[in-house]
Design brief:
Layout (H helix, E strand, L loop, with lengths): L6 E6 L6 H13 L4 E4 L16 H11 L4 E4 L10 H14 L4 E5 L4 H4 L9 H19 L4 E4 L4 E5 L10 E5 L3 H10 L2 E4 L4 H9 L6 E8 L4 H12 L6 H6 L3 H7 L5 H7 L1 E2 L3 H14 L3 E6 L6 H21 L1
Length: about 325
Amino acid sequence: MATNRQQIGFKLMAEGFPPKDIVEQAVAAEEAGFDFVEVSDHYHPWLYSQQHSGFAFSMLAAIAARTERIGLATGVTCPIMRYHPAVVAQMAATTGVLSDGRFTLGVGAGERLNEHVVGAGWPSVSVRHEMLTEALEIIRLLFTGGYHSYSGNYFDLDDARVFDLPEVPPRIVVASGGEESARLAAGLGDGLFATEPREELVEAYEQAGGVGPRYAEVPLAYSADPTAAAEAAHRTARFGVTGWKVQAELPNPINFEAATAHVRVDDMREAFGCGPDVERHAEVASRYIEAGFDHLVLMNAGPPDEMDAFFTHVRTTLRPRLEELAAG
């Protein structure tokens, strides 16, 4: 099904680490041979146990200065509330320039957790998709160079121009939690982004004419001790088992603490690839490969002091196994 070469990325969890650590992880990911890194663009962390949420585009600028080859991406930026789409176009273009064209703009309709902070309320999902459509139209306009104006139901643009553009506009990858947004990704994006191994999302994207890369986050928790891996994932990543509809609607970390109060460590073992076993990690990743995703973003929710061991594990053992799976 896939038309692009299988690529392996690393998820930079900006909610779980200080900004300087995120930059160092990106440098280590390049050294470990990852094809790209993807950083979350949040205002709040999901859980109190995370305690961080640095500004994504500042970290990306620092990463661009410290790396030479690795691709950079947001996973994902919401261009409809916290940011006006004209500002997103400028941020993305500057990041593209600083990284010599290595930047991919991942966008989505957002989560209430991050967007309610500006006091504009939280629209229904159908309205958010309409807003996202207008936002992408504005960003596309500004990526073409020159001055542009736009008048929509939700956004206006008044004689605006982004002066510093990379030679090639950043690729735009659109997050999808359902078939409607997958079709939107095909019409206005250059690729698809998802967090669940749902083949119907890829099918809807392709049936609507989408031919670009398909990104998906793969939940792993590396540790030499499988129990330590599962417990670490439970501390900082249990929000991930609530599902996208819950993740999009709750406003603050305290709500996610309540929503995950009954999540067990055993639930994390079921959802994540916990421990050092390459075959268990490959089993989790294969769900995404089989669904048609060709850009796998490996998320490591294991103990932070074993992150270097995780990078070694990917370089020496896991990546070769994933390439075998992708080759069929």
